[in-house]
Amino acid sequence: MFADVIIDISAEALDRTFQYRIPEILREQVKLGTPVSVPFGRNKKLRQGYVVNISAEPSFDPSKIKEIVKVEKNLVSIKSQSIQLAGFIRDRYGTTMNEALKTVIPVKKKIKNLEEVFLTLRVDEEEARARLSEYRRKNHKAKERLLEAICDNEVVTSRDAKHELNISKSTIDALVKDGVINVDRERKYRNVVSDNVDNSAGEKVLNTEQQFIVDDFKKEYMSGVRRPYYIYGITGSGKTEVYINIIKDVVAQGKQVIVLIPEISLTFQTVARFKNVFGDRVSVLHSKLSEGERYDQYDRAQRGELDIMIGPRSALFTPFSDLGLIVMDEEHDGGYISDRSPKYHSDEVALFRAEMTGASVVFGSATPSVKAYLKMQKGIYKTYRLDKRAGNAKLPSVSVVDLREEFRSGNRSILSELLQEKICDRLNKGEQTILFLNRRGYASFVSCRNCGNVIQCSHCDISLKAHKDYSGRIRKLMCHYCGDTVPMPEKCPKCGKPYIGTFGMGTQKVEEMLQKRLPNARIMRMDADTTAGKRGHERIIEEFRAGRADILIGTQMIVKGHDFPGVTLVAALAADMSMFDNDYQSMERTFQLLHQASGRAGRGDKEGEVIIQTYSPDNYVIKSVKAQDPSIFYENELAYRNLMSYPPYQYLLMINISGNSKSYVEKLCSKLAGWINKNYEGIKLIGPNLDLITKRNDKYVMDMYLKSEEQERLIGLKEDIQKEVEGSRLPVRIQFEIK
Ligand code: ADP
Ligand code: ZN
Q: Which residues, other chains included, contact 435 with Cβ-Cβ below 8 Å and sequence gap of 6+?
C-alpha cells in the first residue's frame, strides 16, 4: 500500500504530495489524515506530514519509493471530511494544501490529558479505623490525616489532599503500599464554559412568528430537506431563541450543531444562554483558549461527548461525525472573513461543509450582507422574517444631527448640543449611554467640515485616500482603484472654505474631553487598548452591564450584538467616518454598523433613543437608518452595485503580490498584467498602478483586481496565474482573495 503525504513545511512552492510506502507493521495505523514522519529531501531528514490519499498502486517506480518511518502519536489526526474541506479552501482561496490543512485543524498537537485522581478505601471501614489508630500511635501524622479524611468522606481527590490536607504524594504512595487505599484516575476535561449560567434567561414561550419558523424548519428537516435558510429579523426580535429551538430538534435526531458567532467577545453571552438549555453538551472553541483547553474541546467533539460547538469562524472545523446544522449568527459581520491567508469566507465554507455532510445552514441577522440579501431575493436562501421585537421592548427613536450646521453655528466639539443635552438627561435619570466612533478609515479620507463634501475620484466614485509625506503633512490624494493622483486642495472645491482636512479623533480623546465636561460621570472606554488579555472584553462588558459606569465609549466593537438592558441612549459620534473608505463595501458596513448600534438602545423596559451625528444627512444609509427601513438601503445599494459592476453582480479577484525586492514585485505585476490582457478576453483588469507599491512589514506590496461576472472563471484564472508565477521563478509571494 502507498500513501500520498503532504509534507509539513511552510515553503509555499512545495504544494504537492509525495508518495511513500506503508510498511507492513504500520498498515493498521496509517489512514487518511494520519500524521506521519517520513524521510525527505536529499539528506533524508525526517519530516512530519499528513496522509491525504492511500492507493494500492504506486504512481511511479516502486524501487524509488521510500517508507513511512512512523506514525506521529503526538499530533492530532485529520478526519477525511476535513481533508475535503481543505481541498475546497485551497481551490477556492488560492493557498497551498499545507496551509489549508492547518486551517481545518484548529488544534494540531495533542496535549496531555488532565486527570482527576480519586482516593478511596481498599479495606472495610472497621479495618481502616484500626489502621488509623495504629498511625496515631506511631505518630504518623500525615498518614493519619489522610486516612481519617477518606474514612469520613469515602472519597478524597488527590487535589484536595494536597491543597486542603497538605498531603504529599509520598504519603499517598505509603498508604497504597500499606494496602489501605485505592487510587483511581479519571480523565478530566479542562473547563472552558463558565459555570454562571444566565438564570434570568429561562425558557421563553415563543411568539407566533418565532414558533412559525421553528415549526416550518422542523417540518422540512424531518422530511429530509437540507438547505440554507436566512432568519432576517430585527435586533431583539428573538433570533437566538429561535436558533435554540431549532437546534433542540436537530440534536434530538442525534446530530451535532455548530453555532458560529462573529467574534470572541460575543461568546460569553451566547454560551450562557445555550448552557441553560443544553448543559454540558455545549462547548466553545476559540483562539483565546489555551492549547490544552482547545485540545480538550476538540477531543470531546470527536468522541461524541458534545452536541453543540459555539465559536468564531474556526469552530466551523469542529470534527463532528454527524453534523446536522450550522448556524451563523450575524451573518453580515466582517469577522467571518479570515484576516490571514487563506482568507476564507465562513459562509461559503459553511455551505460547502453542509452540502458535503448533509446538513442545513441557518444564517441570521438584522442587517444581512448585500450578497446574502440578493440570494434571499433570488430564493436561494429560504427567508424567514421577524419584524417585531420579542417581549415588550419597543424600537428606539432615531434622530440625525447635521454636523455641518453645528460647525457653522460655532460648535467645534465632537458633541452636538442635542447630544450633550441627552447625555446629561441620562445622567440625571441614572440611565446608561453608549457613544461610539467607527475608526475604520480613520484619518484616511479628506472632507470639508463646513459643507461635508468628501473629495472623490473623478473616475471611480470612491473617496480619495490621503497620503502623508514624511513630515506628516498631506500632500497628495490617491484613488486606490485606478491610481489617479491629485494634489491636496487648499480649499473645499465645493464651498470654497478652507476647513478641509482628514477626519478623525480617537476614543481616548473623546473620553478625555467628555470627562472634562462631565466630571462626575463614570466613563468606561472599550477599544483595542483596553481589552487586552484573555477576558478583557468580557470584563468591560460585564461591568458596564452591571451598571458600574454611566457612559461607555468605544469603537465599533461595543455595538456588536451585546445586550445592555440599562442603555437608553446610543450615539454615533461621526457616522461618516466609515462611509468613505476606499472600497465598494464601505456603505454596507456603515449601514450595518449604524443599524446594529441603534438596536442596542432600549433593550430593557425603557424606551431607547439613538442619535446619529453626520456630515451627510441626505445619504441613503443615514436615511434608511433614520426611517428604520433597511429596504431603503438595500434597494439603493443593489442598484449602485449593479451599475458599477461590483459584487454580488460581478466578482472581484484580488491578487496581492509581495516580496522583499521592489523591482521583482514591479516586474511580476507588469508581466502578469500583460499576460492577463492578452489571454483573457472579457475579464477586466484594474491596476496595477506601480506608483502605489506600498511597504508593509518591510515587504513591498501591490494589489491588482480582476472583475468578471462568473465566479468560476476567476477561480480558474487564479490557478493559471499561480502556475504562471511559479514558472517565472521570481522571489515573490502571491495571495488571492475573491470578493
Ligand atoms: P436577537 O438575537 O434577534 O437580537 P434575542 O434572541 O437576543 O434577539 O432576544 C432579544 C430579547 O428578547 C432577549 O432578552 C430574549 O430573552 C427576549 N425574548 C426572545 N424571545 C422571547 C419571547 N418569545 N418571549 C419573551 N422574551 C423573548
Ligand atoms: Zn479612481
A: 510, 514, 551, 552, 553, 554, 570, 571, 573
